[in-house]
Amino acid sequence: MGSQADRKNSGKTDISNLGFTPMVKVSGEWEVEKVVDAIPGDAPKSGGQSPLAFFHMIERLKTTKREGWRRFGIERGESIADHMYRMSIISMFAPPSLAKRIDLHKCMKMCLIHDMAELLVGDITPVDGVPKPEKSRRESLTMHYLTKNLLGNKDDAAVGEDIRAIWDEYEDSKTLESQYVHDIDKMELLLQMMEYEKRAEGALDLGEFAYVSSKMVLDETKAWAKELIEEREKFWGTKQHVDGVKGVEGGVTEEKTKMQDEYYSRD
Fold it and tell me: In what residue span(s) does the HD/PDEase domain sit (predicted)?
């Protein structure tokens, strides 16, 4: 059996990146159909009576990377599914003062659903230049496609309606459950920020992401974030000498802060 390099040189399909799904780009106005048609291989077909097409499409969450980290050169970072999985685990740990007031089962589901549209839309970040209304339009169209077009029989359609309702609740951000999950979304990002920095042993400053801690709304989750930021400050206190990296300040510029304010305004 030849090496992978031999297979590449022989013209055979390169299998080395099957675990990575690049964002599909289309010309003109963004539409679900254009993206689905551009997916390599046989795209899942709409209108069937089996949920398998939906199951296949969800796989893209496992292979689509979170773009914010890739801007810093972290090419093999977390996927969207990775992010949502840890969020769901974190949601189980609501302090008693909060747990008695919310539906934790719904919160766990919301964590696993809230970024589902990114399997076609991609992980759009504040610096990508996509207006917020356009981002919302793309995500809403994708959720309609996933929960209506791919789920044909009545039993699956009922599950689809539940998924869409939970996604809408998260987007509206009016219920206590949705506010909790929005905060967990930010908390998971903060955890990953610090974990990448520590793994890089101070050679990588991801401090601009620390901004999201200021957008958290619940006292219980703010306490988690405060503890993490203090932990990060202690870490960077020992790394100030590395290539002039400031770490604690995080390199947050006025321009970036303005973009982030606009992006997180719904929270």
Answer: 76-199
> Domain map of the chain by residue range?
48-202
Helices vs. strands in the chain: H and E counts, helices first: 14, 0
For the entire predicted model, the pTM comes to: 0.86
Beta bridge partners of 157: none
| DSSP code of residue 145 | I
The answer to whether 146 and 116 have CB atoms below 8 angstroms apart is yes
Handedness of CA 124, 251, 206, 262 (dihedral sign): negative
Does domain 48-202 match CATH 1.10.3210.10? yes
Per-residue pLDDT of the chain (267 residues; tens, 9 = 90+): 444 444 444 567 778 888 888 888 899 999 999 999 998 776 777 777 899 999 999 999 999 999 999 999 998 899 999 999 999 999 999 999 999 999 999 999 999 999 999 999 999 988 888 999 999 999 999 999 999 999 978 899 999 999 999 999 999 999 999 999 999 999 999 999 999 999 999 899 999 999 999 999 999 999 999 999 999 999 998 875 455 555 545 444 444 444 445 444 444
